Amino acid sequence: MSTEEPRLSETAAGIRVITEVVPSVRSVALGLWVRTGSRDETPAQAGVSHFLEHLLFKGTPNYSAIEISERFDGLGASFNAATGKETTHLHARFLDEHTDDVFGLLGEMLLESTFPDIDSERDVVLEEIAMYEDEPSDRVHDYLADAIFGDTPLGRRILGRADVIANIPVPDIARYHRARYTAGNLVVAAAGNVDHDEIHALAEALKPEGGSGEETLVPEQPPAGGRLEFAVKDTEQYHVCIGAPGINRADERRFTLAVLDSILGGSSSSRLFIEVREKRGLAYSVGTYSEQFTDTGVVATYVGTREDNVEEACEVIGRELKKIQSGPVTSDELDRAREHVKGRLVLSGESTAARMARIARSTLHDIPLLSLDEMLAKVDAVTVEDVSELASELFGETALSAAAVGRDEDRFRSAIQPVSEVLGA
Prior knowledge:
Layout: E1 7-10, E2 16-21, E3 27-34, H1 48-55, H2 65-74, E4 78-83, E5 88-95, H3 99-112, H4 118-133, H5 136-149, H6 162-167, H7 170-180, E6 186-192, H8 196-204, E7 228-232, E8 237-245, H9 254-264, H10 271-279, E9 285-292, E10 297-306, H11 310-326, H12 331-348, H13 352-364, H14 372-380, H15 384-394, E11 401-406, H16 409-415, H17 421-424
Helix pairs in contact: 9-12, 9-15, 10-11, 11-15, 11-16, 12-14
């Protein structure tokens, strides 16, 4: 898939515009990104970023919620939105001939929402929160974030609190919108069969109401030492997460972390997948993941296992976390993991949506935008020593926190002893 180098420009208002031309396709992936998310909320605003994202679809001066959906369908576009801890964005994929119309509609939704039908959408989001509460395999990741970061913005869940969503008034939501959806916080990103000058001209028409939006991020300081969180729920499985603070999104070791993740639990030939699932049949779902933020990150292991197996599953995980710190990975493991990571990079590069998201995040967070060849070279440069050093830094016993959802907290505290004696105390 041939491409051209991404182009970056800035509108008169201060909105950054970045595009990547993929001339072999007829489609466009377009995203309007805002540097705001749940970590920008106070406790009294918990969930407002996500609630606001919902409200962007409910109506503008020119379109009702139903007309927005009909308009997108009539343009043959797939569209959606997402809220994270540091970003919110609207995005769409569509035929290149509809670029002007789709951009205009997304821009109007982003900056000119009239917040109609707010009470019905409150109910929708409250149902989403209730649904999430019933999914322990999802909820446990939020419990882990709370265990790692405590009562800080990164420790709170993106969906927020039901009592806030049920009661927050429209003027408060509109005030948050004006304060955060500002030119300095906006990035327009597009990938596919696009013309940069055309996208830039369309972006010039965006007129955020607020100021520059530039802010100094208050760095997160995770509480010293690990913590344990347990939620009692009558479930068939214990849903367990073990994790620790990770590295930030600009850290050069993110390529080493990707390789480490693949070796430990991020692939079907990883140590945890083989030891927990294939050899012992202790779980259907087991694996590792990581998240990177502006100033910190998370590394984590998840397993869902029946009550009778929770002790053995935790014992195996604890042993593998210690093993990857104490001894070097094999050359075969390293080669396989590097090729796995490189394969994912190349495959994601064949998606215009993935390309759009990559250039958007890089621009939004001021991270140097590397070419595919540069990224592949950095993966190839990862050594056995790099993996061992990073594993020792991230998975030390005193750094680990744990969270679980299940029937019996005492049983889990006993099971977690092989991972961390401190957590099991």
